[in-house]
Amino acid sequence: xxxxxxxxxxxxxxxxxxxxxxxxxxxxxxxxxxxxxxxxxxxxxxxxxxxxxxxxxxxxxxxxxxxxxxxxxxxxxxxxxxxxxxxxxxxxxxxxxxxxxxxxxxxxxxxxxxxxxxxxxxxxxxxxxxxxxxxxxxxxxxxxxxxxxxxxxxxxxxxxxxxxxxxxxxxxxxxxxxxxxxxxxxxxxxxxxxxxxxxxxxxxxxxxxxxxxxxxxxxxxxxxxxxxxxxxxxxxxxxxxxxxxxxxxxxxxxxxxxxxxxxxxxxxxxxxxxxxxxxxxxxxxxxxxxxxx
Length: 293
Prior knowledge:
This protein is α/β, with parallel strands linked by helices.
């Protein structure tokens, strides 16, 4: 039995070795070759079940805080597996969050994230489907904020907008000769619009794990974690920034595994001016020069 990996970035199934036909002389009739399907090797969790688990687990804490911590701990866990440069600082934050819960609540948090992980990772299989799963989960938990205007666009509307906007001829031109199609969402929310765009590109035959790059920004850190989780587990090369798109002030940068695994191919999209460490260094240098003058 072939080994199973959650991060299955081989979306171009034509790259798989062909199945050899059995010679006719061996049988009286040719043996038909069954169609190869790349099916998810585990039962795909349902959002209804995850919502019920959250409602049970969040009885002793604020539901909004529980869901936020769920997303943040999940994002940190994935980031720390690949982004070693930021691991120590994020590990401290992870421990700070997890220690605020009792042992049984910690176990529930981990079990719920395991289902979220499995749901989001299933998109790379033939029987998985594209969807704004975390946006739907967020709204099903009644966490929309009417004062801040935080309501996630229904996925079928996002998909319609993507199909109307994305031009097939332009896409084919951009990815010709193994090129890269870059997409930017300066106010990404939970990543629903991006997931819809990826579905359209997938339907056009684009291997987005290699021929697509996503840059996503949002001023709300919880939305950043949501977008990062959806893109990371879909196998998308992406940089998600906690950033004010208008002022360019940036507080944190999140690199997906698919981006770091193919860093030499996609590094040109990483702008140092949008890195908080670089910005802090510039401010410090400017302050020292001002003092000297």
